[in-house]
Write a structure and sequence with these properties.
Belongs to the prokaryotic molybdopterin-containing oxidoreductase family. The chain is α/β, with parallel strands linked by helices. Helices cover 29% and strands 18% of the residues. Helix 9 packs across helix 13. The chain binds ligand MGD (2 copies) and molybdenum atom (MO).
Length: 688
């Protein structure tokens, strides 16, 4: 097979172009795209990249189907019907850019903070996700966006405990003897981690899944603890209790490399397995057994993920869990410790890419993306500042993914709101645009990527020319900057230059070009001898920085905002983890993948279903005071009693009644990191 790296995409012999998967997933796969006569005919995993190992998930294997989709946006569009009607007419790029720049200039002359960028991780690329766009909004003096919709509770918890987003190296999970898969469904959500876990299992490791839902992953583990949503901190504290009572501790590690041991010890001793069993809804024996396994197996690894981070006590729960390896000294072994996110290990030059120095001297206010529903509806006030008058959305689909969609829709439907959306498709959010701009996909643009699950940098070369008149996000913001008269040299950098700037000399760019990825040189057992990137250099059980903010310096169990038993009308707890064949709301419009998911599903336990006269296949209404949505019931032991699983995240207009699961989720925030609390949600369910 020819492995030409030529840029010539028009030659007739098939070529293969190295790239990177852009999607929001810890695996950050290396891609090989086959191009024939300028057309991408196949996207595969790069067999030369150890973590990808030539394997892709079902979704990204369909990347050509998505890129060449008949409904790809190919020309700039201007709204021609009422707000939200989704009616548009084509306009030229020149016209669109001039109109948009004119509107933004007029608003910025009065109140630049009335302009809000809204983006998340539609692409994880540093160039198309956080470079020219950030420069543009910094220079404009627009409101800052607090990007809290996914990972900020855990990020803050890691920062306060381990010092940064650091942890075990992915590949060493294969050598662990015990793996706790905690708040994570890797078979559905990050398959390449699961491949290492399977290797460990074949070598005799014990796998334990901690998840309210009986997932595909739980099916394949030796043990499944189906705890109540939002009770992980109670479980972790009870594990500590047992480690202490049975002296399954590494006293030397604790003495040398931790801070706040006596205080944590006292806190944990209040958490008997009986007390935790009551809170978590688990058998006491199961908690004791897990503690024994964790206390007596070496090496023991924890793959912690985002499941527990979408409830009120998210940050405390992550803090409690990431204290565990320091108690047992699990960090001493490369195959011991914990991994939540590896993203803090990359020497990415964010200030160079994003240029915060372009911001006005008085730093603009921040708007939390997880409360966009409320914030779009707020009038000007002394505490809030100016009403939001313009939103520029890219790499995100807030109408579908943000909590309490009823309010998000109401906000985007405001006649006086000026909305620009950069997209591949006419999503639920795009329906509300005044200007809808066609963006390139990963096959069509340059980018450079880090990963939050492994420690390799990946380079993405364009494999084909942009389809239609699509432009890369970076180019669109460059063009807008020119139109606005921003003359700083930072607005002249081209996309590939931005790729080079991202890591500077910290990465061998020639090597990246040649093999598509480069592995960071990091120690195998990063904290075998302490050296945590905290102020004390230790694992901080007690965080003086949290205490200084008036918060609890120790991790504790904080009950959910919406605690079961607190509402007779809405007695069921709902979690809304991903449907396996979608990626958040991306791929919902890819026919072959939607054909597998068929309809929005609600998994409900047989007892809860029977009490409501619900059978498998019944059309049901899920509701609370925020709203309701329709879905198809699946009566199943995948749901634990009292908890329903509303699999996400459908496009509203492709669902059953023009809404989706976020119609019922709320805008309350987490204890740390001001993150969304999607899984802290009480509902009632009835036959529709
Ligand atoms: N196929 C697919 N893959 C994805 C995504 C997708 O939408 N689809 N999304 C991507 C994104 S953006 C992210 S952030 C990652 C997320 O990566 P993961 O966090 O591994 O992904 P999830 O599948 O959401 O797994 C979370 C699990 O937590 C469980 N859970 C819910 N509440 C609780 C709780 O209170 N405690 C515990 N212990 N568990 C709980 C859920 O049932 C679910 O099985 O996945 C990425 N990968
Ligand atoms: N109920 C509930 N809600 C949730 C979650 C949940 O578990 N339950 N999960 C939450 C999580 S973990 C996350 S991360 C968020 C995700 O929320 P979002 O980041 O909004 O993710 P997506 O829904 O995938 O939307 C990304 C959009 O970006 C577009 N896009 C991709 N690449 C490009 C590009 O290069 N240029 C431009 N202009 N556009 C591009 C895609 O077409 C897609 O429409 O959702 C959150 N919402
Ligand atoms: Mo996410």
């Amino acid at each position: 097979m020819s492995m030409s790296l030529t840029k010539d995409t028009t030659s007739s012999a098939p070529i293969q172009v190295r790239g990177a998967c852009p999607h929001d997933c810890p695996d950050s796969c290396a891609l090989l795209t086959t191009v024939e006569n300028g057309v991408a005919t196949r996207v595969q995993g790069n067999p030369g990249h150890p973590h990808t190992d030539g394997v892709l998930c079902t979704k990204v294997a369909r990347y050509t189907e998505r890129s060449y989709h008949a409904e790809r946006l190919l020309v700039p569009l201007r709204r021609s019907g009422p707000k939200g009607s989704g009616q548009f007419v084509p306009v030229s790029w020149d016209q669109a850019l001039a109109d948009i720049a004119g509107r933004l200039q007029a608003i910025a002359a009065r109140a630049p903070e009335a302009i809000l960028p809204y983006s998340y991780a539609g692409t994880m690329g540093l160039v198309q996700g956080e470079s020219m766009d950030r420069r543009f909004f910094h220079r404009l003096g627009a409101s800052q966006l607090e990007r809290t919709i996914c990972a900020s509770a855990g990020a803050e918890a890691l920062a306060q405990t381990l010092g940064d987003k650091v942890g075990m190296k992915l590949e060493f999970f294969a050598q662990a003897r015990l793996i706790l898969i905690w708040g994570s469904n890797p078979i559905g959500s990050h398959l390449h981690f699961w491949r290492y876990a399977q290797q460990a299992k074949r070598n005799g490791a014990r796998l334990v899944c901690i998840d309210p839902r009986k997932t595909e992953t739980a099916d394949k583990c030796h043990e499944h603890l189906a705890l109540r949503p939002g009770t992980d901190a109670a479980l972790a504290l009870a594990l500590m209790h047992e480690l202490i009572r049975n002296d399954w501790l590494d006293h030397d590690y604790i003495a040398r490399h931790t801070l706040g041991w006596q205080a944590l010890r006292e806190r944990a001793l209040q958490w008997t397995p009986e007390r935790a069993a009551d809170v978590c809804g688990l058998p006491v024996a199961q908690i004791r057994q897990l503690a024994r396994d964790y206390g007596s197996t070496r090496p023991a690894a924890i793959r912690l993920n985002y499941g527990m981070q979408r409830v009120r006590g998210a940050g405390n729960a992550v803090r409690a869990v990431v204290c565990l390896p320091a108690l047992t000294g699990a960090w001493r072994d490369p195959a011991g410790g914990v991994l939540l996110s590896s993203a803090g290990q990359f020497p990415v030059r964010r200030a160079v890419l994003q240029r915060p120095d372009l911001m006005p001297a008085r730093r603009p206010r921040s708007i939390n993306m997880s409360t966009i529903g409320d914030d779009l509806l707020r009038p000007t006030s002394a505490s809030f500042g100016p009403q939001i008058e313009a939103v520029i959305v890219y790499n995100s689909n807030p109408v579908a993914v943000a909590p309490e969609s009823g309010k998000v829709v109401q906000g985007f439907a405001r006649e006086d709101l000026f909305t620009v959306v950069l997209e591949h498709f006419q999503t639920d959010t795009a329906d509300y645009a005044d200007y809808l701009l066609p963006a390139t996909t990963q096959l069509e643009h340059w980018d450079i990527h880090l990963s939050y699950g492994h420690t390799d940098i990946l380079l993405n070369r364009p494999a084909i020319a942009p389809l239609g008149q699509a432009r890369s996000n970076a180019r669109i913001f460059r063009d807008l900057a020119a139109q606005m008269g921003f003359a700083e040299p930072a607005f002249a950098d081209q996309d590939e230059q931005l790729c080079r700037q991202a890591f500077g000399d910290a990465v061998d760019y020639a090597r990246l070009q040649e093999q598509g990825f480069a592995t960071l040189e990091l120690p195998d057992a990063p904290f075998a001898a302490g050296g945590f990137p905290t102020p004390s250099g230790k694992c901080e059980f007690f965080s003086a920085r949290l205490a200084a903010q008036g918060l609890d310096g120790l991790p504790d169990y904080l009950p959910n905002h919406e605690l079961q038993g607190s509402s007779a009308r809405h007695p069921l707890a709902m979690i809304s983890p991903p449907a396996r064949h979608f990626l958040n709301s991306t791929f919902v419009n890819v026919r072959s993948l939607r054909a597998i998911e068929i309809e929005p599903l609600l998994e409900i336990h047989p007892d809860d279903a029977q009490a409501r006269g619900i059978a498998s296949g019944s059309l049901v209404r899920v509701f609370n005071d925020r709203g309701s949505y329709h879905c198809r019931a699946s009566v199943s032991h995948r749901a634990r009693p009292g908890v329903v699983n509303g699999l996400g995240i459908w496009w509203r207009k492709l669902g059953l009644n023009g809404t989706n699961v976020n119609q019922v989720t709320g805008q309350a925030l987490t204890d740390l990191g001001r993150a969304a609390t999607f899984y802290d949600c009480l509902v009632q369910v009835a036959v529709a």
